Amino acid sequence: MKGIEQSMYQPKYPRSHDRYIHLKKPRIILVVLAILSTALLGACTATTPDTTPMPTLPPELALEPTATNIPLTPTLPPATPTSEPAPTLPPPTEEPTLEVLTEEGNGIALSLPQPAEGAPGLAATTNVNVRSGPGVDYASYGVLLEGNAATITGVSSDGAWWVVDYPEAALDQGWVSGEFTVASNATDVPVVQPPPVPPTLRFTSPPAGNTPQGLVVDNIYLRSGPGTEYTAYGVIPARKTATIIGRNRKGDWWTIQVNSNLVPSQHGWVPAAYVRAQNVRYMVANPIQPIPDYADLPAPAEGAPAAYPMTPVYLRSGPGLEYPVLGTASPDTIGEITGISANGEWWQLSVPLEVSLDGLAWVTAPFIFAANAGEVPVVEPPAVPKAVESIQPSAGDPSLLTLEAVNFFAGPGNEWPLLGVLPGNAQAVVLGISPDSNWYIVRIPRAADPGGRGWVSAEFVEVELKRGVPIVEPPPK
Q: Does residue 364 sit within a domain?
């Protein structure tokens, strides 16, 4: 386990500060005539993310689907990794800081909220991953560097993993292996029920030669766009090499190919900080869809079945990837669970009418932490809509690629008649864009619309050759 869980981020010349970590890596240039050498020292840069309050954890949470609920805070097992003496912990800070290291493939260094005097806390004895759950199958959020501290808020049922305060994560929770930490004042912390294990994605290794490629150094989420605001498809496994097919303009996210039925477009985005890339000198920037406009889910009543998204997750019209995407739920929100699919793999939630006209949508269970949901009813799924075959663009036409199955309407929103569904990974000719840039007009078969035009949400597509596309006013409702 130690060889796996200990972070691959191993700086050669670390120097620790209260809030930032700077790495220095000398490069020696031999000058033949002067027989002299010079060293160039580079320092990494730091960014500070926005901190958004996460939902308060209810008194009882159940890993669903199960027949009964499991309490979040049962009696602490006697065997917990707290036997070693604790080091002196630094004073508390108000909020975490995050630093992307300058050298790709080293991961992301985290500085977490510090424990108050006498409060449960830990210090890392080596560079250790902060994960989305208690195990190496969960995604890494970043690395707690050797000697850095964190506040303990809970422990796994087997006592092997600590829950630490990480406000950037769902439920304010990060998980750290007790094997690589020393804890103090932690004998009475509650046992915390783990979230579901996210699915692991498959992909084909790149061919030999000069193919752009990258070694993924740890388990990380594959996302629909270049940022943690975008939906996660699943986890890319550590120590695998993937084909790189693009980047964002800033150069801190790579687009990689995958081979998974969980990713209709067969590509997604990973942070460059976790990829050791090669043959990417001339890699061009790929098109990017807008950052999702998260749905404002109705809050459940106290004690009602509740869903906590562990990452941004798609809302669909039915329990399956063949159903069109209606919107995106944020990890900052709590949804009311109204039902479960017969196979237990999808939750039905209450949603606003602007997301779905019947006020219902479905989310995949592996990305949802469910509470009080042991008695929710099994719900029959709606009929799977028949997808319309798109009209392929010609060379030079403005075009888009659907990332998922998407509805197209007679206007820019579900207030207009629904005309049909475009399947995921479909290309379509772009004819126009709405004044607010949130909807595109695409060419569709005249059997679906006599005018051969439909409107699709910009949130679920990638657009090529967008320049010159005319702005079109919406038709009357």
A: yes
* Domain count across the chain: 3
pLDDT digits (tens, 9 = 90+) for 258-276: 999 999 999 999 999 999 9
Residues whose CB falls within 8 Å of the CB of residue 37, separated by 6 or more in sequence, listed in order: 28, 29, 30, 31
Distance CA 103, CA 275 (A): 10
Please provide the size of the chain in residues.
477
Edge-to-edge strand ranges of the sheet holding 275-278: 232-236, 220-223, 267-271, 253-257, 240-247, 213-216, 275-278
Same domain? For 339 and 416 the reply is no
The predicted-structure confidence for 84-133, as pLDDT tens digits, reads as follows: 333 333 333 333 333 333 344 568 899 899 999 999 999 999 999 999 99
CATH number at residue 294: 2.30.30.40
The whole domain housing 254 covers 213-278
% of the chain beyond a pLDDT of 70: 78
d(CA 229, CA 307): 18
**Residue type present at position 261:** N
In a domain, residue 261? The reply is yes
Within 10 angstroms of residue 257's Cβ, the number of other Cβ atoms is: 18
Task: Assess contact for 184 and 120: CB atoms under 8 A.
Answer: yes
- Of 453, 455, 419, nearest to 437 (Cα)? 455
Q: Is residue 59 part of a domain?
A: no
Residue where a domain stops, chosen among 353, 384, 415: 384
